[in-house]
Structure formats: structure tokens, C-alpha cells
Amino acid sequence: MSANRAFPKDRAEDKEARRRFPSVWLLILPYWKTKEGLQSLAMLACVLVGGWVGTYVSLWLNRWTGTFYDAIGAQKFVLLPALLTSFIVVAVLNAAQMMLAVALQSVVEFRWRKWLTNWMTEKWLERRLYYRIERDGALENIDQRVADDVRLFVHDSLLLTMGVLDVPVRIITFAIVLWNIGGGMKVTLGGSTYTVAGYLVFAAVVYQGTIFLFTHLLGRRAITLNAKQNRLEGDFRVRMVRVREFAEQIAFLRGEQTERQNLSNSLNKVISNLFSTLWITTRVAFFTNTVGHLGSIVPTLLVLPRLMGGNLTLGGLMQSNSAFGSLTGALSFFPQVYLGFASWRAEANRLREFLAVEVVTENVGFVVERGESHIVRGCGLLLTNADGLELARVPDFTVSPGSRCIVRGRSGSGKSTLLRALAGLWPHGQGTITIPSSGMFFVPQRSYMPSGTLKAVVTYPQDESAFRDDECVEVLRACGLSAYVDSLNVVDRWDGRFSGGEQQRIAFARVLLAKPNVLFLDECTSALDSQSERELYTLLLSSLPDATILSVAHRRELAELHEMAIDFSSGSTSEPSEPDQNGKAPHLPFEDRRGLEKMPC
Ligand SMILES: Nc1ncnc2c1ncn2[C@@H]1O[C@H](COP(=O)(O)OP(=O)(O)OP(=O)(O)O)[C@@H](O)[C@H]1O
């Protein structure tokens, strides 16, 4: 059974439960081990070296600031043209380097996102995980996880990693500069005078540390609110998609009022959460803006005694201000990282929930025997739900190669679930299933109509290039869809265009193209009138005379086209016992009556 658990959100929750989820490294490492990943790694190395060169350029600019303002202070205007020329050259080169770094990092981000999304999509589709997730309600908003969470996870991972590798170099560099420029501060305490060396560095750390502390106190709730926002936006989108998907059903039922109410409730939650977030971000913004203004005068105030004592030139003042700004700017990475890391962790946890479903193996309760012959057999089959509660007991049956068997029973008695179990889509139950190793084709109650050309619809799940146009035209005509043969290469939303009955005719056309050896039909003529139903069945039987067929159907008329019946209501397997329209025993059209052979379980 799939894991139907969300990642523990609360720290107090069981640590063991957290450990059961796959490590975040399972999301990160696979890409960087590929050839493309190694190339991306080389690009990131260039970005990082570029960042360090940028730090050196900032250092150069800091020195330039000192020289420039000293020249102005000393009224040596003759030096200005050369200083300005060198400034413009360095500024242009620096801008080019920064632009290149942003572009390179974006390229890596796009490549990693593409790879990871493909990887997740493959995991989603492999071993029918997409079906298990929906069947068991194991995860919400899987589309949001594969599309949005992967994009954000990749973006934030790169941003945080590059910052962690780049920022310490900037911090150390400007701390040294500030230490040297700022000199020491003389403090008189208890009659003794002490010199606090590098006091501007300590001031920068205390200044930025205070901002960090207050940002944390004022804004920590934003982390949980942001995570909640993603979920609420996803829920709202899913509701909208469902209205689009079931537009006709809602329109027939006049369900607009209820849908409007549901959408409005969902939107209210989104907006209410946004308001809560807004209050927090506003007070954080107010605080950081106020402190930000202070930041421009704090270093000046700190060096004022030296300036007044004549120990600092105008250039020195500007240089220390610039170094103080650079250092606090580099230190401000940590408050940002703190919030960014929380978002990153929420994104990673949602993806880890997805991987957890993937690694849990299906607890298949059935013994499945696969044979070379086209026989279908069920022995001692008990169908249960995921909690082990009984849904249905299936009478033992053997449908021998080339035979046709009808499955009957009251609505909700478990007929479709039996077909799911035979298709390997229903793991809950016990007993032995014998099916062929290949050549099976299942037609569900509602056929899937992919978007694209009509030819792609008819040939699904095979690629449309696998069949010639004339083959498709022939089966469309045979199935009563002559009106559409000229639209074979027309792209449309065919699910909206075909009537329910026409969609079922398409399903028959698919079967005729696929020519399976063993065919399972689940009430796939329910939308057709009796005559059309009979015509399609007769067409099918004559086109696939050797196919083993197991049909779930309610209509009595269909029984006489089958040689045997599995009856869920009476709990027996027999030849059809329903009387025909004249009240006579049903006519069995197949003289050898292969389906009635007694075969031991
Ligand atoms: N994914 C599911 N999870 C839990 N129970 C399910 C699930 N799918 C079906 N069931 C239950 O299994 C039982 C049998 O359903 P099934 O669809 O097999 O009936 P059926 O005989 O095909 O009905 P009908 O003739 O109306 O199509 C029902 O009670 C249904 O609620």
C-alpha cells in the first residue's frame, strides 16, 4: 500500500517518522552525477570564481573611493580624469562579469530543473505510481509538486549554495579592509585608556546581528505562512481545474452556486493567509528600512572622533563607510538565508513525500501466475479495500483461450474491481490470478481521449505513426464514425466534441487496431443503444475470432454473445441463464463451447 502520510510538520513529531522519508540528497545528487551535471558543475565553478573576482573588484573600488575623495579634498582636480577613466573601465568589466555570472547560473538552473522534472515525471509514471497516488489518495496536488516545487527547489538550492560559497570570502575580505581602515577606538574606563582594535568590524557584526535577531522575532511566522500559502494556492487551482473538467456535469446540475461558494471559500483562505503574511512582512519591512537608513550614518558617527581629531581624511571616511556597507551587505546574507532556507526545506519536504510514495512497494495480496496461453483464471479470489475489509468474493472461473465470458452483478458488487485486479491495478485481496504474459487490452468504463489529432486519439496508447491513415479510416467507418474520417488529422479537444456513445465507439476502434489476444471490456457500451451495442460486439467478435474476452455488462442482450458468465450476485460461474427476448434459453453461438470446460484451480 502507498504511504498516505504527510511529512511531519511539527518539530515535536516523531523523529523516527521524519527519518522514514528519503533523504534530501536523493533529490540533489542524481543530477550532479550525470555528464550534463558535471558540465553544469564546471559552469558553477566559473560563476564562483567570477564572484571572487567581483569581491576583488569591490576591494579595488573601495581603495579607489579613498583616492578619489582624497583628491577632491586636497583639490587635486588634475587627477580626476585618470581616476574616472579607470573607474568607468572597471565598472563596465564588472557589470559584464556579473551579467555573465547571472546568465551562467540561470543556464545551470534551467538544465537542472529540466532534468529533475523529467526524473520526477518518470518516477510518477513508472510502475503506475500516478494511478496508485490517486486511487489511495496518497498525495495532494501532485502536479504542483512536479511542476512548481521542483522549479522552486532548484532555484533556491542554487541560490543558497552559491551564497554560502561566495559570501564568506566577501565577509573576510571586507572585515580585513575595515579592520585596517577603521583603526582602533580609544576607550577610557576607570581611569585607564584602552584601544579597541578593529571596532568598526565589531560594530558591523553587532549592527547586522541585531537586524537578524529582530527580523527573526518579527518575521518567523512568515515561514509557516509561506508554506501554507503554496498549499492553499494549489488547492484553489485544483478546484478551478475540476470545474473546467466537469463543466458539462456542473452545468446540467446547475451547480454554479455551489461551485461559486466553494471557489469563494477556497479563495478566502488564500487571501486571508496573504493578509496574515502582509502584516508580518510590513512590520519586518518597516524595521529593516528604518535600520537601513541608520546604516548610512552609523559608520560616520563611529569614526567621527577620529575625523574631528584630524586622524582621518575625507577619502578615509568615504572608504570606511563603503567598507562598512560592503561588510554589512555581505552579513545580511544570513537573515535572507534563514528565510530562504525555511522555504527551501518546505519545498524539499514536499518532494520527499512524493519520493516516499515511490519507495513504498505495493503489498500485492494476489498470487499472479503468468502463462503463455491466452487463458484467464481466478481461484479463491477475495477483493478487499485498502484496510482489508471485504468488497467481494469472486466465484472461481476459468476462461479458456478464445472464449467469451460475461461478468454480471449488482452495481457496486465489485465487477470493475475484479478487472482492476486482473490488470494489476488493485493490490488489495487474496487468491490466485492466471493471466497471459502479454497481448492483453483493457477498455475501462470511461475512455481517455488525449488532446491532439483524431488519429492520435484512435491509435492511443500507441504513437499515431504506428498506423497508416487508411487503417484508421477503415476502423472508424466500421465502428460507425464515418462522419469523422475526414478529420483524422484535425487537432481538437476530442473529449469535449464526441458524445458519450461516440467515445465508446472510439474505444472499439482502438481495440480493432490493437488486435489483442485477450480483451477486458468494462461496461464499454453503456452509452449506446441496444442495436448499436449488438452491432459493435458482433463486429468485435468477427474481427477477433480467437480473442479471449471478459466483458462486464448489465444488459441481458449481451449475455447471449458470451459462452459463460461470472455472476457476482449468485456467487456462481455458469453459462448464461438469462432468457432471451422470446423467453427461451439463451442461444450459445459457439458450438465448441470452449468456455465451459471445467478447469481445476
Ligand atoms: N479506490 C477505491 N477505494 C476504496 N473503495 C473503492 C475504490 N474503488 C472502488 N471501491 C469500492 O469497491 C466496491 C466495488 O466497486 P466496483 O467499481 O468494482 O463496482 P461495480 O460492480 O463495477 O459497480 P458498477 O456496476 O456500478 O460499475 C464499491 O463499494 C466501491 O465503493
TrEMBL record:
Region (Disordered): 569-601
Domain ABC transporter: from-to ranges: 376-595
CDD domains according to UniProt: ABCD_peroxisomal_ALDP (cd03223)
Transmembrane segments: 41-61, 81-104, 158-179, 199-219, 284-304, 324-344
GO cellular-component term (any): plasma membrane
Molecular-function annotations in GO: ABC-type transporter activity; ATP binding; ATP hydrolysis activity
Chaperone in keyword set: no
Membrane topology: Multi-pass membrane protein
Positions of the ABC transmembrane type-1 domain: 41-343
Biased composition (Basic and acidic residues): 589-601
Entries under SMART domains matching the protein: AAA
Keyword Mitochondrion: no
Gene3D superfamilies on file: ABC transporter type 1, transmembrane domain, P-loop containing nucleotide triphosphate hydrolases
UniProt name for this protein: ABC transporter
